[in-house]
Every structure is written in structure tokens, then in C-alpha cells.
Structures
1.
Amino acid sequence: MQTITTAAALRTVLSNQSGSVAFVPTMGALHDGHMALIAAAVASHDIVVASIFVNPTQFNESADLDAYPRTPEADADLLKAHGCNVLYLPEVKDVYPEGTGKSLTSTLGFGSLTARMEGANRPGHFDGVAQVVSRLLEIVQPDTLVMGQKDYQQVAVVRSMISQLGLRVELLVVPTVREVSGLAMSSRNRRLSIPETVAAAAINRHLSAVVAGLAAGWPARELEGMAFREIGTHPLLRPEYIEICDGDTLLPYQDGAPVREIVVATAVHCGPVRLIDNRLFAPSLAEEVNP
Amino acid sequence: MQTITTAAALRTVLSNQSGSVAFVPTMGALHDGHMALIAAAVASHDIVVASIFVNPTQFNESADLDAYPRTPEADADLLKAHGCNVLYLPEVKDVYPEGTGKSLTSTLGFGSLTARMEGANRPGHFDGVAQVVSRLLEIVQPDTLVMGQKDYQQVAVVRSMISQLGLRVELLVVPTVREVSGLAMSSRNRRLSIPETVAAAAINRHLSAVVAGLAAGWPARELEGMAFREIGTHPLLRPEYIEICDGDTLLPYQDGAPVREIVVATAVHCGPVRLIDNRLFAPSLAEEVNP
């Protein structure tokens, strides 16, 4: 595996290679969830490029940016062991040579996709995500961009951005990887104490209950209300939202509506961190997607 | 497989055999659920005796007794094919030579086990069940009695009867077998129309939602209320009860109580029949039992 720190060097290396390129953008502190992205990339492409870049423009709280875990040596070892070919590890000035104020994506509109959930609760977050992903795609020029289902709303925003900018890149979305407890893997989990880790595992049980309720046809607003209230009864959890949305519009799902996919998404504060998670349900199949 | 119609002949046949005896009492109209009982019996015993006897004393509605499906030839073929050794196929007078009024079990008390659910909704039903099972055990004298989890309350009553009478017989309980749709197998399913069969499959989805809610710690009374109301919104279903009970006492489960097992049990009218079903949840494991 080659480690490269500048866009110019990366372009030189990649232009000397032939074959399909998959790109896995990350913020480091890698775990098995990221490795599932790498594995999906390796399985279907000739060259796998991963980036580790803690993008300052998508953090709406500087404390969260400062506290974001950084484990560069372990990350490089994991990527190499899982068959990644190129690690792009840039400085901020390499990604944003003209500063962070200028963005290809500043004129894009995401409509309902950013109106709720993370969009409502993390002002500027998705502008920063679109900015960094568009810039990284410009640098890497992959055939396929690989992202995780755990960041469902982020995937929706990036899909819209690709469409609006007319970029020629496939988007490959990989199911969420969970701990045995059901807790979705996240770099932020490293900051949880043991009791907090135990408490956080309840989040997925509440999502399971909501999905099972949807499968039985129980009303979406009542399920949201029950789950929100019951998550709030855990001494170590404080729910920010739990929403049952049309997976395509990210607007509230209306009972019985003929949508392709329902996403049940939540953000929950646990100790020092804010965790997000989601589960997907296909009403036409009456079945969970990627359970 | 031998087919025997009298208790006297059955005693003669069995007393000439050596080895362990498992007994599977049925009311005929056999399906894959019964075959799971036979398979469990065959796997662990030398001789498997099944009975087919539509016991009049456990039917509280004569219309239900009259309409109960009877498929004797197909039943015998199925039992033989699955390794049953002896089929006991008695007349009423062979089981009750002194009439149905006299019962070994008339002095037994089942306390809370028959206070609710089937006990409250089918007067006399469990007295009839205890009467026929005690009489059949007297005739067959098996080492093991094999019953299905689907009749959870019946199993609890029979377990109590065995204990109260001091009978030396093991009770083997076999998990419920379901159609692909999730509908619990039942002889009464044969009387459902196709739309009713589709509707009836929803029952298990409601039970799944309740179990998932219990796993998330949602309040039992609210889950019962939501499931009862939502089952009632199906045009072809009419719920009679849905109860979340302590599996040992069959009294209502109190949130957080340290019980061994929770049973979520329901009776639902669908077209011409009344269907029962249940699911088990072990709070100490936060996991479903026999999912």
C-alpha cells in the first residue's frame, strides 16, 4: 500500500495505473465498519483508494472536531491488511488550496434531504460534507464511491450532489456493521465508558422495535413517540430525534404511503458523544433491508 | 405402524415392548406442527405412540367441535411416514368408560394458570384438557408426554396437573412451527379462505412487534394496547385478547419484574375460526426464546 499526502502525487500515481478505481473516504479512527467498505471496494475493483481526512468544514462544533479520535498508525495497518492499495492522507491545505470558503457545491440545493434530522440539528454539516466529497472526487476521480449506510442522510446528500453536478461516479452503499451487542460501529464509540457502551446498545433495540412495529402496520408517529420517550428513560441516553422517513425524500413517512424504502433514523447523546444510527424497511416486501 | 382402537389392546401391545415410550396426544387433522412433535419424540425415544381423539369435553362450543377438521386417512399416512410406531384411535366410550362426568382431575386447582386468556374465554376448556390428558396418560403410561408450545397455557395446565397428581412423566415442549408467512400451523387454518389466510399471517407480525418492544423495554400495557387496537384495524381480524404474561404464573407481566420467561399470547377471530398464537421472551437474556 502506498501512502500519499498530496493531490498532485496521487494524480500521478493513479494516472500510471489501469483498471477500475474504488474510493473510500474516511475520517480515520478506522473500525470494522470501515473495513466492510474496503472489502466491498476490493471485491469489485482493481484499485482501492482510501482517504483519511478529518474535514473541518463538516464539524458544526469545534469541540467535536478536536475530540474526534485520531489513530493514524493503526489505520494504515488496517487498510493495508484489508487490501487497500493507496492511502491518501492530505493536509487541509492540500484539499482546500484556495481555503475552505470556496466550494463547488455552494450553489447546490438539497431541498427536503437536509431539512430534518442531521440537517436540522447540525447546521452547515451537509454543506461541509458535499464540499469535501466533491473535492475528493475531483482529486481521486474514482469509478465508484463507497459509503456506509450508517450515514444514510449523508449518502442521500452525496447522491443528490453527484446528480446535480453530473459527476460520472457510481455510489456503492454498504450495510452498517454492528457490535455483537447491536451497537452500530462508529469511531465515536471509543469515547464511551463501559456503562455508556452498554447503554448505547439499547439504541438498536429501539430501532428494532420500531421496524417490527412498521412491519405490523403500527402508526409511524406513535412508534416515533414511544421510541423517543422510552430511549429517554435510560439514565445514560438522551435522544435528539427518532424519525421514520421516506428513504428517498427524507420527509416523514405517512402510514400506508407507497414508498420504496423507509428509513428509521435516530441521534442519541450518550456520555460525551452524539451517536447516530438507522435501519431500513421495505414496505412492499414487508421486510427489513440489510437487517 | 400399528393402529389400535381400545385401551385394553394398547396396554397389551405396549407391555410386550421394551424401551422408552413417548406419547403425542392429538386431535387429528395433522400438519407439520404435529410432525415436529413426532420428530422430537422419535429422536429421543424407542417407541412413539400418537393418539387421535377429538375430545368432546374440551370444546366449549359444540359448533367448534362439529366443525373441527377430521382427516383420518391422511393423518395415519403422515404418522407412519414420520416414524410413529403406534396410533391409538379410540372411541369416546373407550376413553371415558364411566362417562365424561367422572374425572381424576375434578379436584385439582389451577389458580392463576386458568384465570386469564383461554381460561377466561373458553369456560370449562382446561378442565376438559386436564381430564383427557390425565386419562390418556393412564392408558398409555409413557415416559414422556410431547406437547406444542403453541398451546402454551394448555402446557402450563398439564404441567401443573402432572405435578398435582404426582405423575411420573416428563413433559417435552416443542417450538411452534409456522408457515413461511409466519402464520402458526393449526388444524383450524384449513377452514380459512385465501384472503383470511393472508390476513391471519399478520397476527405473527403483531407478536413480533410486541416482542421487539419488550426487548427495547417498552411498557407491556402500552404494547398490549397498541397491538390489540392495530390487530382490530384489519378488516378480517377481530382480536379477543393479547396479553403479556409471566410465563410461569400467566399473570400480567409487570415491567422490569425478574421473571424467567415472558409469554405474549393472543386469540384472534378470523373468518369462521378462532386462532391462538404466542411468542416467548426471556428478559434475562433480552432475547426471544424459540424465535
2.
Amino acid sequence: MKNKFYQYIQNLQDTITSKLEDIDGKAKFKQDIWKRPEGGGGRTRVIENGNVFEKGGVNISGVHGKLPKSMQAYFKVGNVDFFACGLSLVLHPKTPMVPTVHANWRYFEMYDKDGEIIDSWFGGGQDLTPYYLFEEDAKHFHHTCKTACDKHNPKFYPTYKKRCDEYFYNAHRNEGRGIGGLFFDYCKATETMTMENWYNFVTEVGNSFIDAYVPIVEKRKDLPYTEAQRNWQEIRRGRYVEFNLVHDKGTLFGLKTNGRIESILMSLPPRVQWVYDHHPEAGSEEEKLIAVLKSPRRWIV
Amino acid sequence: MKNKFYQYIQNLQDTITSKLEDIDGKAKFKQDIWKRPEGGGGRTRVIENGNVFEKGGVNISGVHGKLPKSMQAYFKVGNVDFFACGLSLVLHPKTPMVPTVHANWRYFEMYDKDGEIIDSWFGGGQDLTPYYLFEEDAKHFHHTCKTACDKHNPKFYPTYKKRCDEYFYNAHRNEGRGIGGLFFDYCKATETMTMENWYNFVTEVGNSFIDAYVPIVEKRKDLPYTEAQRNWQEIRRGRYVEFNLVHDKGTLFGLKTNGRIESILMSLPPRVQWVYDHHPEAGSEEEKLIAVLKSPRRWIV
């Protein structure tokens, strides 16, 4: 399974970066291959200063060895071997009219002393962070997520949509990071779902990413915008930074377990502002976005 | 003591904000008085878009009531009453030639059921974060810190200088946030230091702030700088954000105990950049700064 999934994310990284370069029309992904001293490594691909993408990364990694102490405590296991691989992407478009997007698909294995798998699971998801809310875009994104989920279980979309709203939440601001999507973790073999079934589900979601995001980019990338709208985007990007550095378990985990810092922090936006006590004007588009972030909506009835 | 110290930080806030407005010559501090629902409140003063100061805050607060659950666990005490007050300041100058500065002086009391003090202590410090290193400025700042310390105990400066280097450290980057200064905490009554002695020490440091920082601002504020130097400042400000959101106990404490968010996060810089895998050129001024951040220097021999 680990080889099959790693092969899958390698191919998916190629497909996604190639598609994004086509859309951007100017910038190309720069590739960094890195090794982890304790075992494994990754292929980081970052795009900067494009026509469409101001900054973004589409990274894969596959790491293995002794489970680090901090992870032993986290997973409540002893001194075991592990393997983990995944694809993580974050794209920060230049225009405030195109949302930032994040996605991640990952697979984890733990082994006993004889190298037998004692536990394994999939996790991941994809979620959208708009600066201006186009309801049809939110509906399109969620509809694509739901279609991918429904092929596997009709309960997946409502369950993982709710988990996404709960996870990507800036508790200190009482607002969501964005308008959500899917978030799932610890997808383990059960009576009804084998690991093969989970592989099919996770790769279905992975394959849906381009359909979920790219039509939104194409529809909004050439819309005009003002300097004030750009400032709003940079202020909202500050909230993205706050989530990733204060609340995101994946980021903190990476920072505290000696991960490759530049691959982890590629998620941070290129240009950000913090303005003291900023509040959008009553009745503005900016205020409408905040209202939705404070009370997540059902995008599909 | 609590009334005396609160009176002191009120006066110090007036003195510092008045001096900074004089230097800035354009922007004035905007004042927000806020109340804490559970008891106490604060007086936040923020300056933005000045000639010299792009953003900064000089805030005081005095809060009291039942010690929040998270703080009970942190201090390993039961359900007790507390009082805490302090002055916190962060100044982000517009020009990369003037360092960012942070300072904090605080006092804490805990009470038994009869309202008797069961524990009390002072804490605080001041530290400098330059974007370009002028060695004479670093020496001036540390010399002023040392002079204030030496009046009370010759061991204070070396001890609190070292603690400052250790505390303001971005472990995930293997570098200090800045070039240090002083950091002290849990300054409690001992055989040689009464609380009155500690009050005299802490206020001595508080009174030294203007002498430590203002001459540096005056000397560097009108130096010319390039767009590339400004970009470097914004990239380094990203490291400031990383420290405050990932490592700073005070910030995380505030965020997780329902503090006044805008007063806590006034410390974040106004405009920030994150560039993937950025490294200064060999032999550049930027690289010299990094070298000092990676191995803290003794500024006073």
C-alpha cells in the first residue's frame, strides 16, 4: 500500500503542478529534492511571482525510521518504526478575487519489531479560503467534494465537511479560516471499509482537486480589483498565518520535530498585513465574508 | 505594592508615549480603554503610519479575579484569586535602519481564601531586534541595560542577558529573534531582595527604556535605504511573527485564555513577507546579522 500510494502522490504532484503552470502562463515550479537524515525525504515544488500565483507549494514527502519521541507521546505508542507519506499543497493567488486553497492527502504506517504493520491509516482533505465570497464558487467547490465523497459513502460529505469547519477554526478570532471543504483523519480498516476502499476514496478526493479549484481560478483570475481590495486580502492572509502558526497541528508538529522548515512554511503567504483593530464597513462585501466565517454555511441543500 | 506598581506603569506609559510622539512628529497614539468581563481591564495605546513608527503599541493592563483554569495548571496551584498588571510595548519602525524593540514589566499576586497574599513576583525585560546591525547601537542598548542592573546586583546583567538570548529564540530556525537585552521572571522576595528591592530594580529597568532605545532611533531614523533593504526588513519581520505566534508564552497564554486579542496582537508587524528558502548573499550585511543571531555575542566585555 505504501508504495502504491507514494506512486499515486508522485503522479498527482506532476499532474497538479503541470496544470497550475499552464494556468499561470508565466512562473514555473522550482523543485527541491531533500533528504531526511533519519530516513526518507521529499520533493518540494514551489511557484513564486507568477501571473496568477503569487506563491504556492505542491510538496510530497515520504519519511520513515524510528517514530520521534514527541510522536510516540502523541500517538500513545512505544518505540516503534513508522512510515509516513503525503502530498501537501497551498496556493496563494495574486488577485484577491481568487481564493487561497489548501489540500493534503497522507498515509501512515507503524510497525512492530518484526516489521509487521501494527496500525495504518489515511488522512487529508481540501479547503478553500476566499477573500471575496462568490457563492457559486463556494457551491462549486463543495459540490465537487460531495460528488467525490458520495461515490464511497453518502455520510462522508456531511461528516468531513463538519470536521473541516471545526478544524480550520481560529478560536482566538471566533471565525473559520475559510469556507471549508473536507477534512478526514485516522481512516482505518473497518468491517465496511478495507484499506483498499480507503485508498480508493482518498485518491478519488485527490483526483477531484483540479476540478474543484481550477474552474474558480479561471473564472476569477482576470477580474479587476482595487488597492483597498488587495489590502483586505493581505489583512486576511494574516489570519491564515495565525491559524497555521497557532493552531495547525501539522505545522506545529513539523516545527517541533525538526521537519524541513522551508517545506513546512511554504504555506505562509508572500505578503501580509496586520492592522490594529481592523473592521470592515457595515454592509460591505468584506463584512459579508466575515459573517460566513463566523457561522459556517451549508453550501449544498 | 500592586497599587504602587500600577501607578508606576500608568506614569511610564504616559512618559514613553509622549516621548515617542515627539520623535515621530506625525502620528499620535490612539487610546482604547477596555474592560475584562471577569475583572479589571486596560489602556491600549497604538500608533500607526507615522514618520518613524509604522506600527507600535504601548499598553498597560491590570486584571484580577479567579485564576483561569489553564493558569492554575500552569502555576500548579488550586482555585485561587489573582491580580496581574504590566506594561507591554512593541515598536515597528518604518525604516529597516532602526531596530524593532520590545519591552515588558509586570507584577503578579495570588491570594488565599482570606485575601492574604500567598505569592507575588515581578517579571519583565527589554530586547532589540535590528534588521541591520550597527554594533555601536547594540553596545549602547546593552550598556544601558547593564547600568540599570548593576545598581542592584552585578550578577543581574549577565544572568538576565543570557536568559533573554535563551527565551527569544526561534528554535525551528536555529536563530535568536534579535540581539537580546534583559529577560527576568519570578523575581520573588529572598533574604537579600525584598519585594521593595525588586520594585526598585524593575522600575530602574523601566526608567532606562527611553535611554536605551531613543538615541538609536534618533541616530538612524533619517538614514537612506533601498527597496531591497526594506524587503529584507519585511522578511525578517516574518521571523518576529513566527516567534510571537509559535514560541512566545505571553502571546499564546493571552490567545488561549480569552485575553483582548487586539491588544495582544498589536505586537505583530504591519507589513510582512515570506519568501521561500530565502538566504542573504555571502558577505552581505544581511548575512552578518544572521551570523550574530545564530551565535549571540557578548556586547560588553
